[in-house]
């Protein structure tokens, strides 16, 4: 009873195909130990995942629904976010980190130019 309580899978049997499969090399050992499937099955899963990802990416790029596709929507939303950020900054909100760095860089550049003109 104690063994069953500590391991909920103690009474379950492995599928015959997985039990009969042997590990071939370190990748096969890894797949059998961590995923419980042979390396050939893992390779099929990876291949199917890559194919599905390539299909989705191609769909997002090539398929137009009406006058727009996925990337047009993303560009529009990013433009709206940037416009809202510019409006907030113009209203006196705290400047962004990039704006502060740009101001400091330009001030330092002006100082170096003044020193260069004075030294000439």
Describe this structure in words.
The protein has 120 residues and is an all-alpha fold. The protein folds into two domains: 1-63, no CATH class; 64-120. The chain is built from six helices and no strands. The N and C termini lie far apart (92 Å).
Find the count of extended strands (DSSP E, 2+ residues).
Answer: 0
**Low-confidence blocks of residues:** none
- Provide the domain count: 2
Shape: elongated
Distinct helical segment count: 6
Measured between the Cα atoms of the first and last residue, the distance is 92 Å
Proportion of residues in helical segments: over 70%
The radius of gyration over CA amounts to: 30 Å
Largest sheet: none
Query: Beta fraction of the residues?
Result: under 5%
Set down the secondary structure blueprint:
Blueprint: H1 2-6, H2 16-20, H3 25-35, H4 39-62, H5 70-90, H6 97-119
In short, what is this structure?
InterPro entries: UQCC5 (IPR028183). This protein is mostly helical and 120 residues long. It has helices at 2-6, 16-20, 25-35, 39-62, 70-90, 97-119.
Keywords:
single chain, 120 residues, mainly alpha, 2 domains, 6 helices, UQCC5
């Amino acid at each position: 009873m104690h063994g069953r309580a500590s391991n909920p899978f103690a009474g379950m049997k492995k599928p015959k195909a997985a039990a009969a499969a042997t590990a071939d090399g370190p990748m096969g050992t890894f797949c059998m130990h961590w995923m419980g499937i042979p390396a050939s099955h893992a390779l099929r899963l990876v291949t199917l995942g890559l194919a599905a990802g390539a299909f989705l990416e191609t769909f997002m790029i090539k398929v137009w629904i009406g006058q727009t596709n996925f990337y047009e929507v993303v560009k529009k939303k990013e433009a709206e976010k940037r416009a809202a950020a510019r409006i907030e900054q113009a209203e006196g909100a705290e400047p962004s980190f990039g704006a502060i760095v740009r101001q400091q860089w330009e001030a330092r550049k002006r100082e170096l130019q003044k020193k260069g003109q004075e030294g000439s």
